[in-house]
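A note from the maintainers: we've had questions about how concatenated examples are separated. There is no special marker in the raw files; a new sequence line simply starts the next protein. For clarity in this README we add a label.
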Amino acid sequence: MSKSAITVTVKLFAAYQEAFKVSELVLEFPNSMPVKAVCDRLIAEHPELSQWRDITRFGINLIFVEPDTLLQDGDEVVLIPPVSGG
């Protein structure tokens, strides 16, 4: 019997970290969700992050992935908005 929900750890950086005031979240999602669903959920909670939706890169377990890559239980997800600075 497969689980109907998965748990992922989300590492937050830059604008995401500033919005949530933490560097990491543990979230539960339905099975077979794409990694972009993580971004959608964070934006639903903090609409000011919507400006980053189309330019955020995604990583799963230290590998850059496409937004439609499916999440697996226990994945570590990284959302990487563009970083300015120098």
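[label: protein 2]
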Amino acid sequence: MKAFPETFLWGGAIAANQVEGAWQEGGKGISTSDVQPHGVFGEVAERQPGDFGIKDVAIDFYHRYPEDISLFAEMGFSCLRVSIAWTRIFPQGDEQEPNEAGLAYYDSLFDELAKHNITPMVTLSHYEMPWGLVKHYGGWGNRELIAFFERYARSVFTRFKNKVKLWLTFNEINMSLHAPLTGVGLPENSSKAEIYQAIHHQLVASALAVKACHEIIPDARIGNMLLGGLMYPLTCKPDDVLKTLQENRSWLFFGDVQCRGEYPGYMLRYFRDNGIEVDITESDRQALKTTIDFISFSYYMTGCVTADEELNEKARGNILSMVPNPHLASSEWGWQIDPVGLRILLNELWDRYQKPLFIVENGLGAKDKLEADGTVHDDYRISYLNDHLVQVGEAIDDGVHVLGYTCWGPIDLVSASKAELSKRYGFIYVDRDDQGNGTLARARKKSFHWYKEVIATNGGSLKA
């Protein structure tokens, strides 16, 4: 492979609720993640004294971040995507003043990254929000949350303006359609109208955060974050192609609003056709005109779409409820592996928006085996990442402006979907199991050394 652009940022991505632990330290409040002990698709369990949640300690990044950042630096990271736990800054979500202990913690974290010349990319809300805002206000369905989020955003921009120049608003903002509690703090049985109203409030809040960032940190860049849910038509039947267009628009809509500053016509038609009335004020319309600087997204797999209801019914019985692509292999979790899809997605997003792109999540979850010599021979992960990064290089050659790549979970962490540690993504093994047993010791996997060489050669060591 020829080398990537000199300015290309290499690194990894983690989320506070999946790595930090310390769930009640430093004045932190309870978040939606804290009451989802079995992940984003699990039931809600109000916390009881003495109960156990795997995320309560997670991998103890809260206390061990200097050691972990040192390992990231050893690999040569130039960027680490992290999130701020909103409840460390505003424990209930509606306080007038931020929690100093939470601000001080992230000050220390960003200082540690600076010591190693690692650029932080910070997500404001990554699959969690204050549980107090759900209990007392009804989540994002309540317009009051816009002001609470703007206060939070302005607080962290003001505090960290000299330390953080890359920001993201909401992680995988389009996931609210599939996991409303995690995304917008609404019950799973909420109506489409209720979910889209909550999403609207979140889109307005995102735009106001972008405006605040531009005001407070003029030399910063702030982007959105989409779950890259690229779908293919199962056949070339026009009905399949049309349904695929509509399916892709269901998530691209979020990017359209955040990049173009208004609701697209196809979405207004969808609302009309489905009897959905979204309260959009004139001030909302003005707010949405503030657009993002770049687009970030996750990419794990693609799926197929068909108008054939019989096939759709069969697909609902599989783990992902999507029609599988007969031309692709799958991971042990049933996620189909499609490196070329990443090149297609990069080209489609570039053609659609003409804004810089950043791949902020991509990786392979697998059940790794720690050998007697303390290593993990994860050639399957190396193969997966190599093939995807080769396609990133191809997209760059196609003329796509790609800012960087932060693979998901550079260190083993608690999975979002089912709150498991057995589903491992990292280059660094963490000694802890799904029951919370283990020493939390860190060990370098084979992929650790592979990624270190990829970064050192700026992609030149990749095998096409």
